[in-house]
Amino acid sequence: MAYRTEFSIHGIQEAQQRNLKRIAALQPAGEAGLAVRDALVALHRYAVSITHVGKYKVGGVFVGGGSLRASERIEVNGLEGKVFIDPDTKNPRSKIPPVEYAVYENARGGEHAFADRTVNEIGEDVKNRVVTRIKNAVIHVQ
Length: 142
Known about the structure:
Elements: H1 12-25, H2 31-50, E1 55-58, E2 61-64, H3 67-70, E3 72-77, E4 80-85, H4 98-107, H5 114-139
Antiparallel strand pairs: 1-2, 3-4
Helix pairs in contact: 1-5, 2-5
């Protein structure tokens, strides 16, 4: 059987345009970058919302803490990012950086495990939303 080559350029410009849109969607400024940013924002907001705030008795009155919660940060760099405890912050009462006691608070488990809970309670859903957004942007491009 002879090898038969048939070639057509019909529709090639449209195909190239769709490929350019796919490439753009995968860039940090495209849909992929937006999906990563939105995922990190969702993870950060959830972690902050469930982080316990200490209560301290000062002069017979209970006052709130909140240094750990206030030290939670988000950083996005292109298609990567992180939610973390800012190592440069200090608890104004104890002068101890929250980054030092965050590990122990999380290790207490249960309601105290703000980092573990964030991953376990919403991590899969956030990941699925990112994957769906990127797939839709790349596969279903018009």
